[in-house]
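Summary: Need help interpreting a holo structure output

Steps to reproduce:
1. Submit the protein chain below together with the SMILES for magnesium ion.
2. Request a joint structure prediction with the ligand placed.
3. Inspect the structure token block that comes back.

Expected: a single structure record containing both the chain and the bound molecule.
Actual: see attached output.

Input attached:
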Amino acid sequence: MGLWKDQTCEARDPSEASLWKSQPNGEKINTGPKPTIRRLSSATANFDDLHLGPSVVVPPKHMEEPSDAHETAAALELAKHQLSVVGNEGTSTPSTRPETTTTDNYAFAFDIDGVLIRGGRPIPEAIEAMRVLNGQNEYGLKVPYIFLTNGGGKTEQERCVQLSRQLELEISPAQFICGHTPMKEMAEKYKTVLVVGGEGEKCRDVAEGYGFKDVVTPGDIMKDNERTTPFRKLTDQESQHSRKRNFGEIEIEAIFVFADSRHWGDDQQIIIDLLTSKYGRLGTTSESYDEGPPIYFSHNDIIWSAEHEHTRLGMGALRTSLEAIYESITGKKLVSTVFGKPQLGTFQFATRLLQQWRKDTFGINKPPETVYFVGDTPESDIRGTNEYNESSLSENDWYSILVRTGVFREGTEPRFTPRATVDNVLDAVKHGMKREMGKATKKKAMAQSAVDGEAMIEEHPITEAALDGT
Ligand SMILES: [Mg+2]
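--- attached output ---
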């Protein structure tokens, strides 16, 4: 387990130091092997207003291209598999190839918060559900799966290490899509960008890991001009981690909200300053209000399921509020681009990831007939799955399963109807596998019936001949 994790992390980020991260309190922690439990970001957020206005657009075409991140990780997984095969050669015990027990007919995709994790802890049935998928089931089958979360704020490999520990199994970055993962494909498009959200300066690391060349954070701007935010000054530690820049000479070409803002007021002030600027130059004001940089959000979940008994505000709420502020100042609608579920481009991205994962890890070179998507939020998980399934983009049957362990509450009517509703993720896994076994049994019976039918046709002339002969 340690081998592949280390290999993957090293390959994804050449610096081993990527596992050692400075915390807001100045401490450095190893985000690799040392157990840490943190609350995940807004992975389970629910959103109601996706279709309220023109400000949501479908993710751009470049999302259709595979990212190097999962390719690299997938290549390492393949190498790991090959090493294990080589390691078994020459021994008296024949190696068991994974594909001999892995189904190629179907796969699972999971939302994380409210499905597998809640408040930083695994939902009780989640560990058992993963064991079932990994072969501990009555059918003796392994079922491939991926994770598709709107959350973020950490690198994919850090999230995988954390989730691996929580669910007591190995998870590769090649199985994992965060809300901001598709933003990697924007790194070539812009030179200097503002990255907002997450713990401390963490999202700067994520963006730089994606290949963004010049990443600015709100802390850098507050450090350069402390009058930017009249009601909050940087702490000494925040100031230490912020970079001194001369923003009078810098044009910020795009704004990316990578993860949930920890300081809404300050972040909104800085975002509005840029949106109303001339070409992203702080200190300027556009007269036409159409010269500011574009803004991207990694998802649009208004609420999400955290430790609190009630849902909490997510990134979609920040966006909604920014739209209102922008319009009240400029009289214009704010146009933004949103990634994450339920955007169909995100499901296309997930389809490619799943295909690559199945191919490189299990040697399966055909698309699954069915993908079971398990989520807790009707507005993002169920809506996205259903709409993707009904669109011309989907080549498989995407089957939505709603669980009762997160945002959705029993007794309410989900705005988007799932194909199945179950108590928890273990029931979801069992439901999908049982359904597949039913389909397989039916298919087998039909095939047998066809064979029997053919046999009768073959037998009939013989019988006739025999009868004619008597
Ligand atoms: Mg969720």
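--- end attachment ---

Reviewer comment: Residues 43-44, 111, 113-115, 375-377, 406 surround magnesium ion (CB under 6 Å). Confidence is low (pLDDT under 50) at residues 1-20, 27-100, 456-470.
Status: needs-info
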